[in-house]
Amino acid sequence: MIIATYNYGRFITEAVDSVLNQTYPDREVIVVDDGSTDGTRNILKDYIESVRITYIYQKNSGPGAARNTGIRASGGEYVCFLDADDRYLPEKLERQAALLEDEEAAGCFCNGMTFDGRPMLREFTGRGKDCYFDDVLSGLNIFTPSLMVRRNVIDEAGLIDESFRQSCEDLDFALRIVRGRKLIYMPDRLYERRMHGGNLSGQPGRGKYFLKLYSKHAPSLSEEQAARLRKTLSAHIFSEARRDVAAGMFADGMRDLSDAIRMDGFKTFKLPSLVVRYFRFRIKRMKKGERCPAG
Hints:
Elements: E1 2-5, H1 9-20, E2 30-33, H2 40-43, H3 45-49, E3 54-57, H4 63-73, E4 78-83, E5 87-88, H5 92-99, E6 105-114, E7 129-131, H6 133-137, E8 147-150, H7 151-157, H8 169-178, E9 182-193, H9 207-217, H10 223-246, H11 250-263, H12 271-288
Parallel strand pairs: 1-2, 1-4, 2-3, 6-9
Antiparallel strand pairs: 4-8, 5-9, 6-8, 7-9
Helix pairs in contact: 9-10, 10-11, 10-12, 11-12
């Protein structure tokens, strides 16, 4: 069980407690501190001294590198991940481990919810099934905190790609661990995601990572599979465009839209909706007497 953290001392004990309070007894808890400067170690002092967790400090290298440090330090048959600002529900590990009695499964993943109860995977609520490579190519979201993966699968598929520092490391990882294998999906919401201003998923400039991911995987795909992946990534990039424009960063949004069109030309017709979204933002700012951000 790996918890990666960077300056999330204000949340870290909730994350650690949510793992220590699991109904599944056979677990190790590894906290990888990715160069925090907010006193995270002192906050975790009692946990460290009581040997309830293994604490590893490293120079800031990004979430992928922190998780890889945890993977290398772990010794269990299964590997799970939790972000330091999120929480597990008490039965997550026990229920997922039970699913992996199916020895053909490389791992399993579950649904989750935000702290206010919204599901992470609305379109999959109430649906349980085996999931395969083509499902991920076609847009199935597998968020890292939802996963339980066999250690030997990671040994075969490779560690998390640390070059995806701001985005796409979860999708890249999912594509590699499920290729030629299956994952079991559990529709139950077994983890909670905290939404706040510091979430990496809300930061601008993430569109380039979707292009990078396509360049990495496309050469090994069939023409049909590549088309599926382009459509999926185009939708992700367009979501980035909407987010940027809604935040007043029109130039960034247009760059994202251009990248989305490169992936899937059908996104061209959505330009007017972005323009309307941006001017709504400007009007709101003008009414408040505020300046619009650059970009």
